[in-house]
Specification:
The protein is of the alpha+beta class. The protein is 25% helix and 39% strand. The chain is built from 5 helices and 20 strands.
């Protein structure tokens, strides 16, 4: 008598699998297209702005030194005060110079008194020439008259110089500006033409800023102008960014475009002048200058919509005609308002993908949704914005 054989483990497993309900969906089904925010690209006139390192330079700065020697009797200004041209700064002991002026005045009075006497003697000798005065005596009176005139002129010059030296005992500011600390004290002896300055007067309004530009970029800008890519402005203007990141109010005017390139750095200096009524900028400060050269036709690509690869080149994603993402290599020409300036690599009407870039891959199906990037760099759905408004 025979009994039916029991199925083994493999048979039981097969029976259990066939007994499971079968779903029409399978693991091979493709995921739905990713929903991404996009913006339509259009070329527009974009300001061409270059950022240069700069350093503030005083518009005028004068080291004050004495023109006569003597002892400092009085300091007549307060450091930090705004001084006008001609404001007294120091007073030197003038006793010796007043005595010199008095002596020069006496010599002048003596010369003035002698001149009429010499003139009368010459006139009398000229009238009596040959009748009591020989030709030699007439010539002698003529020489005496010329000497008297010369003595008078010398006395006038000596008095003028003595009075000038006396005026130099009061040292005044040659320019309008701010006075620095005095380097001497009352009672110090100073000499004419000494190397040490008594103080420094600096004019801070306006203020100059020297900016360094590479000669290679200057040549590139000239090429863009010649090619018609860049339309230059009639007048170059610059904005300043302070060390704190604050944008300085007002714009600067070009003073000097630079005339020589440094052989060590390959750069040249461009000088701009800014109004500085509040003395916010001081000589020696390091600043950044933003110079608007002109405008160029280009695409503005938000910085969050681009990634820089290991090669240093920017990549963006656009929506292809087949509804999938397409990776594009682009080259930037700087930035403007948190956007990359792109001239080549993109086309009018391209739909630029704004978000989901970290997980994006070329050829990935996507569903484009019109969006924009706000001031905080966040992608905003255009339909949601319109509903909110």
């Amino acid at each position: 008598m025979s009994f039916p054989q029991r199925p083994g483990f493999a048979g039981l497993l097969a029976l259990s699998l066939f007994a499971l309900p079968v779903s029409p969906a399978t693991a091979q089904d493709a995921p739905p297209p990713a929903r991404v925010g996009v913006m339509t690209l259009e070329k527009q006139p974009v300001p061409r702005v270059v950022t240069l390192p700069g350093r503030a330079v005083a518009y005028q700065s004068v080291d004050i030194r004495p023109r006569v020697g003597g002892v400092i009797e009085e300091i007549l200004y307060s450091p930090g005060d705004m001084l006008d041209a001609g404001t007294p700064l120091f007073r030197i002991d003038d006793a010796a110079y007043r005595a010199t002026v008095a002596s020069a005045r006496a010599d002048l009075a003596k010369a003035e008194a002698n001149l009429p006497v010499a003139q009368s003697a010459y006139d009398r000798a000229s009238e009596l020439a040959g009748r009591g005065y020989t030709e030699a005596e007439v010539e002698a009176t003529r020489a005496a008259l010329s000497e008297a005139r010369a003595t008078l002129e010398a006395a006038e010059a000596a008095l003028e110089y003595a009075e000038t030296e006396l005026s130099w005992t009061t040292i005044t500011s040659p320019i309008s500006g701010v006075g620095d600390l005095a380097e001497v004290s009352v009672g110090d002896l100073v000499t004419n033409g000494q190397s040490e300055a008594l103080t420094t007067i600096t004019q801070l309004d306006p203020i100059d800023v020297d900016m360094l530009e590479a000669s290679a970029r200057m040549l590139s800008v000239r090429e863009d102008i010649d090619a018609g890519v860049l339309s230059m402005q009639d007048h170059l203007e610059a904005k300043l960014v302070l060390e704190t990141g604050q944008v300085y109010r007002g714009t600067g005017q070009l003073v000097s475009p630079g005339t020589a390139v440094s052989t060590s750095t390959g750069s040249f200096t461009v000088r701009f002048r800014f109004d500085n009524p509040d003395r916010q900028i001081l000589p020696g400060m390091f600043l950044r200058g933003e110079i608007t050269l002109g405008t160029t036709e280009a695409f503005l690509v938000p910085q969050r919509a681009a990634q820089r690869g290991n090669s240093g080149q920017l990549t963006v994603y656009v929506v292809g005609e087949d509804g999938t993402s397409r990776q594009v290599l682009v080259e930037d020409s700087g930035t403007y308002d948190n956007s990359w300036i792109i001239r080549d690599g993109l086309s009018e009407g391209d739909q630029l993908i704004l978000d989901g870039l970290k997980s994006m891959a070329p050829g990935q199906p996507v569903t484009p949704v019109t969006a924009s990037v706000d001031e905080d760099g966040l992608v905003q759905d255009a339909a949601a914005e319109s509903e909110g408004n």
